Amino acid sequence: MAMSFFYLQDLSSSSCRAFVLDQDTSSWPLIDPLPSYGRGRELPGGRYMSLIHGDGLQDVFITGENGTIDGQGSVWWDMWRKRTLPFTRPHLLELISSTDVIISNVVFQDSPFWNIHPVYCSNVVITNVTVLAPHDSPNTDGIDPDSSSNVCIEDSYISTGDDLISIKSGWDEYGIAFGRPSSGITIRRITGSGPFAGFAVGSETSGGVENVHVEHLNFFGMGVGIHVKTNSGRGGFIRNITVSEVTLNGARYGLRIAGDVGGHPDASYDPSKLPVVDGVTIKNVWGQNIRQAGLVRGIRDSVFSRICLSNVKLYGGDSVGPWKCRAVSGGALDVQPSPCAELTSTSEMSFCTN
């Protein structure tokens, strides 16, 4: 099976290079790891260049009449499963350090790895796209804005083998040193299905994630509806996150906010670098066929604070598994099933009523 990718060298002249090769990856171009990751996400060292790749571009338009960009990912998935790849798989589309980007009216299908990855970018609009991959395809995240600012993702359908949308900002000591957060992100009117999270923050959040507004999500057949995930050693912060107007039809967990998720790039990470999670509001959520309401689990030495659940109604068959909480503080208003005590004992709940 032949595979091809396109490298956007110079948008102003509309030039590109195309490479076609078979399953032998020895001639597939390699690029350096991202500085905020320090190595390839899957394996040490460099990584295979994305099928569509741009670096340092301005005024980028990737659009079409719902035509399909096919990553032919099954070749890569098979090699990943057989553990024959020496480097991290390529994304379908990656733009690095680029500004004023519009991606619209395109179908992205069968990415080898993450589908759409804007990293160190600003002023990005992703609208009216479809992202598809089989639910058993490994690590085929839909859209992952990473250490990027002023991003809008809207009016799209995503069905993949991993998180549908996941906001990231670098990995442990490398992300802390690079220090570029993801901020000013709006996500709205997204529909989709997948075995992991519908909307996620993390787990790579070492540069920080802040000022995120998410609304009008419609997910079915999910692993987790909403997942905020980090870990000891991550450092960074997750703050001022609001998710509202969410419909879930089928999920193992309605909601997870957890401080023990995700591995580390190497043994040099500092486990004392604890993330700060403060100001996460989840409101107006309705779910059916939910197995477990949710888990809100902070870190003993870094309690997750101002966690607000408001008008969250999650229903199952006979019963829904209860909320599980620890090392958190916050408030809960009109939540079904009844929330855990850690989210009802606070005396000051003004942050949860705004």
From TrEMBL:
The organism of origin for this protein: Oryza barthii
Cited SMART domains: PbH1
Gene3D superfamilies named in the record: Single-stranded right-handed beta-helix, Pectin lyase-like (2.160.20.10)
One Pfam family matching this protein: Glyco_hydro_28
Highest taxon, organism lineage: Eukaryota
Keywords: Glycosidase, Hydrolase
GO molecular function annotations of the record: polygalacturonase activity
Family of the protein in this entry: Belongs to the glycosyl hydrolase 28 family.
GO BP terms, alphabetized: carbohydrate metabolic process
Protein name: Polygalacturonase
